[in-house]
Give the backbone structure.
Amino acid sequence: MTPRRKQRLILTLILFTGTAVAITLALLALRENINLFFAPTAVQAGEAPRDASFRLGGMVVAGSIHRSDDGLEVRFDLTDTAETVAVIYRGILPDLFGEGQGVVTQGRLLSDGTFRAEQVLAKHDETYMPPEVNDALEKAQKMGLQ
Amino acid sequence: MIPEIGAFALVVALCLAVIQSTLPLAGAARGIPAWMNIAKPAACGQLLFVLIAYACLTWAFVTHDFSVLYVAHNSNLNLPLIYRISGVWAAHEGSLLLWLLILCGWTGAVTRFSRSVPDQMVARVLAILGLISVGFLLFLLLTSNPFERQFPAPLNGRDLNPLLQDPGLAIHPPMLYIGYVGFSVAFAFAIAALLGGRLDAAWARWSRTWTTLAWVFLTIGIALGSWWAYNELGWGGWWFWDPVENASFMPWLVGTALIHSLAATEKRGVFKAWTVLLAIFTFSLSLLGTFLVRSGILTSVHAFAIDPARGIFILAFLGIVIGGSLLLYAWRAPAIRSVGGFDWLSREVALLLNNILLVVTAATILLGTLYPLVLDSLQLGKISVGPPYFNTVFVPLTIPLALLAGIGAVSHWKRDRAWRLAKILWMPFAISLVLGLAWPFIGMPHYSIAAGLGGSLGLWAIFAALQGLWSRTSSGQRWESLRATPSGIYGMTLAHCGTGIFIIGIAFTSAYTVEKDLRMTPGDEYLLSGYRYRFDGVEDRDGPNYRADVGTITVFHDETEVARLYPEKRFYSRQSNAMTEAGIDAGLFRDLYVVIGEPLDENGSWSVRLYYNAFVRWIWLGPLFMALGGLIAVSDRRYRHLASRRTQSPLPGAATSAG
């Protein structure tokens, strides 16, 4: 083997090892940081994790939005038309949050079955429905017809 | 009538693009000059007709022609003129037309500034740009005609999405697109070189100018996008690892790698095959970016367009471009020979490591961005990958990159000595470590070791870059040697300083930014990081096409008033949309940033969010330096000098210059 080939071989090996290590680390990081999405039906069926953060999405039930006295804590119900989950959130809600809007929230379940949201995402278009919520609504409707 | 002219102009442009992409390619293969020479006039004609089409759409916007569906969806009688002009690229169809116009613009620039490039090469480059143009024209005409009419025409339009009614967003997409599309020139040069079997220093030099220019625009575009998100979204953040942001960041990372590897290819004739591959990757990621943003398959704040048919077209287009160029690469690459050898301690190795780090970073971001889409399409469940993933992989990869930038900038090509590097670099290293660790003591509310180390890293990038410039000079004739230093070196120094500024910005923002959600009644005060925010109440006000609640918050520091902020909540009646406008007082070392939420009771109480954002301006100042550095590098006299000389043979002589 000529010295130049040897150098190339070593460089290639370093490259591959480095990339492999990086990808492994990335996959590990990915496994810890993915957020699963659950619809209210899945949550009520006990499929959602009890001790980990996940995403819950659905439509805000009309008349379910209640504010606490200091005004920053908000309670509302999210539905996929089949089941409903009560959500509690502290902070300023996004501009497009409202009754009948499709929203996705990120947070975890409390022991009483309420969902404590750390983040509420409502999309910036009144006609837009988050794809996950749309799917969940369709699925729940199909189950209702059967 | 005008919209029909626009649609017709697009058809003519398609015909010209077909001619531009076929005849010259055949001519270049068979050596028929007449066929090759068709490329330039065809490209210019295409530019003219696309320009006509674009002008027609703009005209429809300016004159409120709501019989055009696209205008009716994105404009309104009350919309100010500037947003009617920028409204052209507010949604899917118009932004594709803009994409196309920019592609034709770059192609036109290639015809104008390529007199030094051999005719055969120019013909091939223009033909490949023409092929890309054919794809986009077909896409526009078949799936997303911006000139589609509706009868009867509505009396008024639906109005532009309020989020897009901001000067920042008016110029962000064009900048981003100029960058994205600019990489098509680097791609075309790489493919043309593969076709002609001519991968030499001259090719790298031509390619380098275009690549750097495209990179400058992309840098500005991304920074503008981040700045816009900070101003308009009202979350006080500057980067959300949103898939659409990632879509622009990936081509930037690989494009940055390409700039560095082109430097090695030009100066030393090494990494040729790798450089070609990077050019292909960069452009593919640019196309992927367009696909991700414009097909609406993402759960994202940017999901404005929802239409899977278009997605399938772009996916097929993407497959042809990437698959075709990789096939060509596999066929031609074995014949590529890199000439120079190099030692373990050399600038080549530093650049190689830089490339690996940048590409791996891009790959991990790609993984995080596409993973949810792949799982979803395989029906394996719906997931999302949040910012923690991206931060976990991005930070550890950036730290060695910044360390390496300092070493690479001062090291010699081919071979260097460890003691020489140590002698040059120990001082910037020591200074940046001490200053960086001491920095959080000055003017900061508390000490943060993370901010100190981040500050050290940023300062290291800056001081090492400056040391690189200094070490080129010799005592006694500093001024003369500085003047003799080519502007490419100044450009690199400036860009590396920009990286340092950016890192310092991130480190301090993450360590010292604080936010607080509050209920505030007029007269209420709150102390945040030494600043006292006083809420003075909210009033009504009318805008041109909206109604607004405007809050007043006065901020004091050491009992003196430093700022009066007017955060707004706007209601755009036409789209029944609400929009938050943050009240911001910008400063080099801190931003005071407030948004108002909702009215809470009869006493004028509102929910209010207060922010103290430390050093956030540095995050955009850094990219500004990088872009400026890129511009200075492009203006390098060496390129113009060499470009004006006909370079017929591969230049082995260029490999020996040390710059």
